[in-house]
Structures are given as C-alpha cells and as structure tokens.
Amino acid sequence: MSSFLQGGRPPLILASSSKIRALLLEAAGLAFIVEPPGLDESIMRQAVGGERLLSPSDVAEVLARAKAEAVSDLARPAYVIGADQVLSFGDTVLSKPDSMEAARRQLLDLRGKSHTLHTSVALATNGATVWAETHTATLTMRKLSPEFIGRYLAAAGERVLSSVGAYQIESLGIQLFDRIEGDYFSILGLPLLPLLAALRREGVIEG
How many DSSP H helices and E strands does the chain contain? Predict the structure, then answer.
C-alpha cells in the first residue's frame, strides 16, 4: 500500500485486529501495516480496572497506550497506533461478550437506557507513547423487545462478539438506538480527527 501523504516518512503500524479501524485509516488515505499487539486483553482489563482504581476513561487510555507501546518496542523506527474502548453502564464496566447468549443478556440490560462509551487512541514510537486522547460518547438504546433482540442477533451473527456492547453502529447495530451523542468515528473505535492531527504534528503524514 502506498500513499501520497507519507512519501519518505516513518512507517505507520496499526496495533489492532479491528477491521473497522483499518477501514477508517484506509479511507483516510493512510499507508500502514497491521500488527496486533498479542496482549491478553482480559487479564489487562482486570489488572487496570480491578476495584475501580481507575475511571473507565483512564482504563481505555492505559490499554491503548499498552497496545501501542508493545508493538513499538519491536518496531522502534515506526509510529504505532493503539486504541481501546471501555463501555460503562452505571457502576458496571462491560467487556466484549464471549458468546451469543452473553450478547443477548447484555442487550437486554442496555435496552431503553443510556450507556457511555470511552474510546482512547495512543501513538507510540521508540517504545514510548508520544500522544494519547480519549473521547466519551453517550448512547441511548430503544426499548427493545426480547424478540427483536433475538432477530437482531440472528441477522448480525457472531460479528457482534468483536464489539463491546454487542453492536456495530456502522451496520445493523444502528437499529438498536434512539439517540447517540458523541463523535461518530470514536464510537466506531478510533478518534480519527485528533489522530490525524497528531500524525501531522509528528511528521508522519503531510500537513
């Protein structure tokens, strides 16, 4: 992949296996390679979120930084993008569901109510984070019937298991919501505009 934005500039790596994050960067005209960090997210989340020592926003940023730095340690000339999302619902922090039944229970809990999505992005080089930012969005679900939730999950399939909250608003998941307040790109998983600004400041892409 090549891009007029990056001729002769440092290589760029996305430390994520998220297809939507890769699509967002591709659509913005960036050239990059994908290198998932290989970290155990469940253990990391327990370590940084245990006993609520950190706020959900802080947890998202710590995880985004950890992912970027883990890959940056192995590819020091490059700039590495790490990202993470944390969903908070009242006093509860939700993770990606591990089964379709868990996704169904999660959607039953969220229906008719508002929850908060914290999305963090970090940029690392030479093994250290040089910039990070977190955006927060509030999403309110419709008063969904159990039958509708069942039909939605059957139509969306196991792709929902890759998303915190068990929805993807860029596709069928948008049908679940009454109201969304926040940056669209951040809800998808990547605060794109501030990331592009940071890449310009670091000289990774043309200004």
Answer: 7, 7
